[in-house]
Write a structure and sequence with these properties.
With 63 residues, the protein is mainly α. Helices cover 79% and strands 0% of the residues.
Length: 63
Amino acid sequence: MPHAHDHTTAWGTLSGTVLTVLATIDSMDIIKTVVLAIIGASVSFCVSLFWKWVWARIRRPFD
């Protein structure tokens, strides 16, 4: 016997949670997050370049 699933409670809970989170997030929090993400990505890129340079300097005498 097929059983019909009623998902209204799940959708109500999900939409209520999303709307509550959206209502409590301040625009300055979003800007701060974007700025910190840019800084983090830039630092990560620079550190990667530094370690690539260090690795090339270490390997050079052995080539």
